[in-house]
Amino acid sequence: MRKPSIRLRHGDRSVSFAALPFVLGTVPGRLGSLATGVAQEGALSSGGSTASEPTDFLAILGVLLFFGLLLPRVLRPLHLPLATSLILVGAVMGPHGLALVELDPGLALVGFLGATFHMLLAGTEARELGLRPTDPDTIRVLALNAVVPGLVGVAVARGFGYEWRPALFVGIVFLSSSIMLVFGVVRTLGLARARVGRLLKRVAVVEDVAASVLALALFQTLAPHPRYPFPILAGLLLSSVVLLRMFLPEVVGYLFTRFQDEDGLEPEARLRLVIAVMLLVIFAYSAFDVQPVVAAFLVGFALAGIPAVAPLRKRLETLGYAFFIPVFLFVVGLETDLAVLARFEPENLLAVAVLATAVGSKVVTGFLGCRWTGLPSRDAALFSVASTMKLAVPLSATYVASDLGLIDARLFSALVLLSVATSLLPPLLLPLVARIGAAQTDAG
Predict the structure, then answer these.
(1) The whole model's pTM is what?
(2) Residue-by-residue DSSP string for 417-441
(3) In the list 79, 321, 344, 396, which could disulfide-bond 21, CB 3.0-4.6 Å?
């Protein structure tokens, strides 16, 4: 399978790198720095920029935002979340579909900001979701819905003869989820205040962040940090998270007091401050090869304890969901090859095993975990189907793993198939599951 990439020319040089990991900030540090530097140089070089003309770029954004307004109404009978709708539009218009739009550095940069905005907002919701290390419901569900699929993934890869490191990576992909799709489904189905909706969000956040951190640790064994051995790097990261949680709210709270009401500009000044803090922390964590999406989540989680941040959330959501996040979803769609579903070959035992065991382990453990917490069967069924969704983290990590030589072409194709299938099919099934559950409840 051809791996989508951004190709940039700088003078007589041509550099290609995986597009989706760059957008999500999951390219390992030195490769990411090279990609960013070449992108900037190529855009400024008079020797031939490959970025789209400004008018083309504006036209793409205009069409994208228009579809973002129109699609929810057109697809309302399917109850598809906006995230899935925009991914489908990107897949149809992108190089794997009608080839109307190609990914350029400008579009990739806006998509990158969309990914970080979403994780920042997810972090600010962590407190409201009751995300605590001692929460019994979350612990019970994670014990089944994360740990068991991870072990199943390792066992499947080992069963097909892969060594331990590729097998561990498959386990990481199996335990992952999709914060963006889960949050969108919860919103679309009206479950934001329901117990199952809150539990689904908490589990998705923990699973995606855990998968990101575990993938980072695994990648460090192949492409070590140029300055710090991994044990020292892990200690620095852990210490920085503690310090961030302790002091960032104090610093930002103090700075907020400096932006008192004056000519009605206080909210805008505070909003700029939050965005600036997020970008600065992302830059600081890049020295440790930490993905920007993880750093953005940590910023949101740290700021969630500041009372003055709560009124800003609506403004952040408006800015993010009106512009940056839809572009990110569209970019993900550009890198999604729907034809992989048509090319699925039942005789490809590895792909069959990966798809069946990844989905099956999530469905079974999700249902059992929810029943363990006392949720009714209807809610447990919704949770089990929604927990199978995978998108940004596993897909981008798969590209990076392939670039590092961690996985071969067969395993790469199987994992891409898994991400594509589980990002599109579960959102279509969930409304049907909800209606069946409601009908059974009424009949009872």
Answers:
(1) 0.77
(2) HHHHHHHHHHHHHHHHHHHHHHHHH
(3) 396
pLDDT tier at 189 (50, 70, 90 boundaries)? Answer: confident
Tokens of residue 63, six digits = 């069409």
Tens of pLDDT along 25-70? 554 443 333 333 333 333 333 344 444 455 577 777 777 777 766 7
What is the bridge-based pairing of β-strands 13-18 and 5-10? antiparallel
Show me where the domains of the chain are located: 88-226+326-438
CATH number of the 88-226+326-438 domain: 1.20.1530.20
Q: Which of 387, 333, 1, 11 is nearest to 179 (CA)?
A: 387
Tell me the CA distances in angstroms from 158 to 155, 171, 402, one per residue in order: 5, 10, 18
Higher pLDDT, 111 or 141: 141
14 three-state secondary structure: strand
Q: Which residue has the higher pLDDT, 26 or 320?
A: 320
For the chain, the straight-line distance linking the first and the last C-alpha, in angstroms and rounded, comes to 49
Give the list of residues 6+ apart from residue 138 with CB closer than 8 angstroms, or none. Answer: 131, 132, 199, 202, 203, 206
